[in-house]
Amino acid sequence: xxxxxAAVGNKVGKCMLHNWVEERAxxxxxxxxxxxxxxxxxxxxxxxxxxESQMESVTTLRANFIxxxxxxxxxxxxxxxxxxKHNAQRIREKINxxxxxxxxxxxxxxxxxxxxxxQGFVPLTPExxxxxxYKSDQAITFWSENCQRIQGATAVPSVKAPFRKSALFSTPIxxxxxxxxxxxxN
Length: 186
Prior knowledge:
By secondary structure, this protein is mainly alpha-helical. The protein has helices spanning 20-25, 35-41, 60-64, 78-99, 111-115, 142-145, 173-177. The radius of gyration is 52 Å and the shape is elongated. The termini are far apart.
């Protein structure tokens, strides 16, 4: 089948490739209007030939599928409806009471007031048994108490100062043998 070129007569716009059928179908309609009017308002007379006709207000869905109507009579009695409303109200109140519990009264009391300012408490300062100098005494910590159990550490030269500098691990054995007192190996 040979392709026919687009209509040459009163051509309004460029025809898409292989769309010469549409151009021929619109040839009769495009005679009265200019190119600008067609681009602005579209082709008149494609959908309907009667330009004065109005659109229908009812869609096909509404026309074909009408919602069902009620029977027009009471299906439940008045007492049953009132009982159902009463039960629903009770359940609603119960759930609201569980969800919206009243807030407990706020106690504006600090930790110091609660724990240290108790009525009848008399603070006592313990008497010292030894004289301590905080500038020269070794601090007592977990590691200073358990220095004998630490694995991979060098021998402790003195129990009072276990973490002071020690060069025993790098001192040659010949120099260590000259010492009078050898450190104990633990």
